[in-house]
Design brief:
In chain A, a hairpin with a 6-residue loop joins strand 1 and strand 2. In chain A, helix 2 packs across helix 3 and helix 2 runs antiparallel to helix 4. Chain A is elongated. Chain A has one domain. Helix content of chain A is about 45%, strand content about 25%. With about 150 residues, chain A is an alpha+beta fold. In chain A, strands 1-2-3 form a three-stranded antiparallel sheet. In chain B, strands 3-4-5-6 form a four-stranded antiparallel sheet. The two termini of chain B are about 30 Å apart. Chain B is about 40% helix and about 15% strand. The relative contact order of chain B is 0.12. Chain B has about 375 residues and is of the alpha+beta class. In chain B, a hairpin with a 7-residue loop joins strand 5 and strand 6. Classes of the chains: A alpha+beta (about 150), B alpha+beta (about 375). Chains A and B meet through helix 1, strand 1, strand 2, strand 3 and helix 4 of A and strand 1, strand 2, strand 3, helix 7 and strand 4 of B. Strand 1 of chain A pairs parallel with strand 2 of chain B, so a sheet runs across the interface.
Amino acid sequence: MTAENNRRAWMSLLAKAPADRLNVLWQAHGATPAFHWLRAPEIGASMVRGRLGGTGAPFNLGEMTLTRCALQLESGELGHGYVQGRDKAKARIAALVDALMQGPEAEVVAAAILTPLELEMAEAKTDRAEKAAATKVDFFTMVRGEDS
Amino acid sequence: MYVAVKGGERAIDNAHAWLAEERRGDLNVAELSVSQIREQLSLAVNRVMAEGSLYDPDLAALAIKQARGDMIEAIFLIRAYRTTLPRFGASTPVETEAMACDRRISATFKDAPGGQVLGPTFDYTHRLLDFALAADGEVPSTAKGEARLESTPHITDFLNKEGLIQAEATSEDVPGDLTREPLELPANRPLRLQALTRGDEGFVLSMAYSTQRGYARNHAFVGELRIGKVPVEMDIPELGFAIEIGEVELTECETVNQFQGSKTEPPQFTRGYGLVFGQSERKSISMALVDRALRWEELGEDNLGAPAQDEEFVLYHSDNIQATGFLEHIKLPHYVDFQSELELIRKLRREALENANPIQEAAE
């Protein structure tokens, strides 16, 4: 199950990663593995669901755009790309990273691409959380009257 | 006899070319880029995504540019584009409890765990025009506090623990989808919420306001309002497990409304629910009030004949694309329809005149 959880984690990271950063890190890594398409990149949508009252029965909230593709490296690994938005190049890189992460280069790819992405995205999230924290109300009570 | 009329192609082409020129405006003024709209008119972008029913900020910004800022036209463009997309699947329901909250307030509990977090709000501004924005556009630096990274519990959970508020019945039923099946009445609550979340903000706001003014009053407190990003997870059949396919910004509103009880159940607060794409709190609060009003039958309340209680009225008039489509079509050529009306009214007038002057006619 750990292998599956790891794959879930990196695919989820790639899906949400800013396309320009993923592209820059991929180019810097410099890998150009040979592959063939199992499914060329295609743009579609996923219906996002919510729950009644946040906890009850599901309902359809609206769709989001999504791009997917699947490929196979010459060395045999299958890579899937599922990324938010309509960026076919991003889906291709995500699928290549997914495939490489299942091969012997996994550690190098993780260090060159996944770890920096993860750090940057966590940093951006913390930055917003810190700004939100500064807008938290500190209530204080003023003592009135003369009883005590 | 009707003779088919053709023509107008040249006039239409020229009209569209002029539209493009007018859209661009004065060439001495810098052109607006799609990314500028996405970043600097983000609440307009949010509205187009919510009512266009498609979360994609770049597309919504493009639609706003193409529509010259006409929101309903922009929403129309997004709805039209949406229909061209193959659907890869549906997400597992988003967990709003796990939201990374930019804003989270409660009008009912001052000391809610997680606190009252104002976020980037217009509340408490003086609504005075800021002429500095017309000048340099410099932004003040934003203060930072200690980040809270754990999830923020829902306020209604606290009331739930005491049994003071109705629990939502859990279910994993696949919800109906009004973009796939025509809406039929009576609609269930999942379908009503789908219609409301993509409904026109102005319409839903007015319906909600009518309940506050006394048309099916249900006295709502904003138990909680939260805005932030949540991850979206979807099962990927070829993988056999679910992954996060992205994240969306949502506004969620839970209202706490007046009581409901029976001979067997002690009185409990009832609830209304709003959930909308983007930072859209006016819409989200409105949605929750209208949701609550529409639940009158399920909660054993009287039908007071109020518009906000009338499911057919609300659901069939909330969609601004349906509304504008039907409304605006009457400006398109109706020459043949009108010709038949003209002939009819001339005949009626002739008959009326003849009936009024029968003697004159006999004399002729």
